[in-house]
Amino acid sequence: EGFRLSYWAVFGWFNVLASPWVYRFFDLVVLLGVVGLPLALIRATKKPETVSFSSLALMLIWIAVVGLGYVRYNQLIEAATGRLVFPAIACSSILLSWGLNQLPPQRWAGAFVALLGVTMFVIAMIIPFWYIAPAYATPLPLAPHELESIPNQLDARFGDEIKLLGYEVEGDVFRPSELVYVTLYWQGLTAMERDYSVSLIVLTPGGDLIGQEDSYPGLGSSPTSGWTPGDVFADRSWVRVRRRADTPTIGWLGVSVYHLPTMERLAPWRKGQPVDQVFLEPLEIVSWEPEDHEVSHPTAVNFGNEIDLIGYDIDEARARPGDTVDVTLYWRAREEMGQDYTVFTHLIDDGGEIWAQSDDQPVRGDYPTSFWDPGQVVRDQYELILPSDIPPGEYQLELGLYLAPTAERLPVLDDAGHMLDNRVLVGPID
User: Fold this and answer.
1) For residues 345 and 361, is the Cβ–Cβ distance under 8 A?
2) Residues with Cβ within 8 Å of residue 291, at least 6 apart in sequence
3) Quick check: helix, strand or coil at residue 208?
4) CATH of domain 297-429
5) For residues 69 and 72, what is the distance between their CA atoms, to the nearest angstrom?
6) DSSP H or E stretch at residue 25
7) pLDDT for 41-91, tens place per residue?
8) Which pTM does this prediction carry?
């Protein structure tokens, strides 16, 4: 998607886009050109004197070389941008034009191509004024009556210079490589000589950085040295979720302010207390396609009419002292949950003694149950390290869920809704 957009019309630091119809127009142009190429080749074989096949082969070889270079580059560096194939743009444009020229009747071919060229010229003339200039226009201060309508108001301050009055995130669920647009409502508290930068990050509960974008306010159009103390303005920024982010997960959207030449951060405060980072809200990040789970041990266990355990995998059914037993659980949400449950996985002997355990929220704590959608299947992995003194014998896994603040377990229910237990046993493990 990023390649497609940036090949035709992406500006700034991959943050200024044209309207969707612009990209659909170019999609149509490419589609028609590709459809017309077989016709062009057929006609060329009938009249070989009209085509230089050596030139055609050279263009195709060059497009292939550039394409392979693009693929290899993206294996090393995440950069799905169309500009990387611009060295072959002349060849690809000639071939597309050749294909387009085959579609209309020959007496209209010249007029068709000319009309297409004029249309593209008009689009190119409109874009700087319709899309680029407004994106870099200096934001105007909010009027006094607009201050009360600032969404998600908060009390966050950066040093004694800047205050963050509120924010608004566009969207609820995001996917790797997608942009998260957020509008920040800034207020200058004092006149500033420095031009500060704003850093937006996306951080998982486990501490993995899966997104970061740094820029000046207003994408450079509103330097802090020009702020009038007391004025409030809305700054629409964005951060891209990294393409290789593990999903599903929760990513906390964080904001910080710093001076780029010295990398000195303005001390963040929240509700009058110093904090390490000002976090706004958690973002739900899921994969592009539904995952196809192959479960080796299907089950049907109902936990409190909220979550089903639909299966599990155990990598080490036979293990030795000191080994790690990898356990994968497959959960399915029955309904939306307003609470975050903790999963317990205990390796127990016949007497119920626990020899290894792992208690954590699902997906290493990165995807709490309160974010699950009804019907969603979540793959959840745990590692159990066997102690060196564990005696030989047959063991079982004790599984379940509980609320950490109260230690109250979700009951296991039968089809009639009657409680059977507050755990389920699976195995054995020898």
Assistant:
1) no
2) 377, 379
3) coil
4) 2.60.40.770
5) 5
6) helix 20-46
7) 998 888 888 788 899 999 999 999 999 999 998 888 877 788 889 999 999
8) 0.71
Q: Which is it for strands 395-403 and 408-409: parallel, antiparallel or unpaired?
A: antiparallel
CATH H superfamily, domain 144-285 = abc- transporter (atp binding component) like domain (2.70.50.60)
Both tokens assigned to 128: 């700087």
Residue with tokens 């904001």: 255
**Category of 263 on φ-ψ map: left (φ > 0), alpha (ψ -120 to 50) or beta:** left
How far is residue 33 from each of residues 15, 29, 124, 143, measured CA to CA in Å? 28, 6, 20, 51
Single-letter amino acid code for the residue at 62: W
In what helix (H) or strand (E) does residue 120 lie, and over which residues does it extend? helix 106-127
Q: Report the alpha-carbon distance of residue 382 to residue 320 in Å, rounded.
A: 18
Q: Where are the beta strands (DSSP E) in 260-323?
A: 264-265, 268-270, 273-274, 278-285, 297-303, 307-314
The answer to whether the beta carbons of residues 307 and 331 sit under 8 Å apart is yes
Return the domain boundaries, the chain: 2-135, 144-285, 297-429
Helix axes 106-127, 20-46, angle to 10 degrees: 150
Helical axes 89-100 vs 106-127, angle rounded to 10°: 140
Question: Residue 172 above 80 pLDDT?
Answer: yes
